[in-house]
Amino acid sequence: MLIKKPNFKVCIAVFYAIFFAIYFIIGFQPAAEARSYEISSSLNIPSINLNTAVAEISINSNKLETPIDLVGSYSINTNKTLLIGHASGIFKNLKEVKVGDEIAYNNEMYRVISSEVFEKSAVNMERILGNTKRPVLKIMTCAGDLYQNGDASHRLILTAIKKDDK
Predict the structure, then answer these.
(1) Domain-by-domain residue ranges, the chain?
(2) Are the CB atoms for 55 and 42 separated by under 8 Å?
(3) pLDDT digits over 134-165, tens only?
(4) What is the model's pTM?
């Protein structure tokens, strides 16, 4: 029985056919959908030279969707607003904010009254989002040890109250 050697041109053609098939299957996959956020207000923290847009965010799969390059705003009560952002990005200097520093949010002035770090498991979202008599900002970002999935072991939470107009 006589065995023929494969033709070089046939091998190249088969190689390119397989390569292009894989390229068309993998290469033309839709990119992850870029989420656009509607800007609702602004945040200015002079002590860390932060002046940024703020976008309203929502809960998706029981988690708040944090914008990549903006601060996210979430509120379920009239006098309490939660602002969140990434510690590796927009809030990289948030740990430098001190009690007594002023914050401008939505054209209103606030004064920081506390800066606390909690283990992630100890963060009580009901308490953070609960209503108050006086307008309050809660500003939260990751802190502590970073995990491979991008999360962290702790949360830095600032509390700021609206300054009286007196």
Answers:
(1) 39-162
(2) no
(3) 999 999 998 888 777 777 888 899 999 999 85
(4) 0.74
pLDDT band of residue 59 (cuts 50, 70, 90) is: confident
Give, in order, the Cα–Cα distances in Å from 5 to each of 13, 55, 155: 15, 65, 66
CB 60 within 8 A of CB 80: no
Q: In this structure, is the dihedral angle defined by the CA atoms of residues 127, 124, 139 and 73, taken in order, positive or negative?
A: negative
Does CATH number 2.40.260.10 belong to domain 39-162? yes
Question: How far apart are alpha carbons 11 and 22 in whole angstroms?
Answer: 17
Strands 59-60 and 80-84: unpaired
Contact (Cβ atoms closer than 8 angstroms) between residue 139 and residue 158: yes
Q: Which residues contact residue 100 at a Cβ distance below 8 angstroms, ignoring those fewer than 6 apart?
A: 111, 112
C-alpha span between 156 and 52 (Å, rounded) = 19
DSSP state string for 92-124:
TTGGG--TT-EEEETTEEEEEEEEEEEEGGG--
Distance CA 13, CA 3 (A): 20
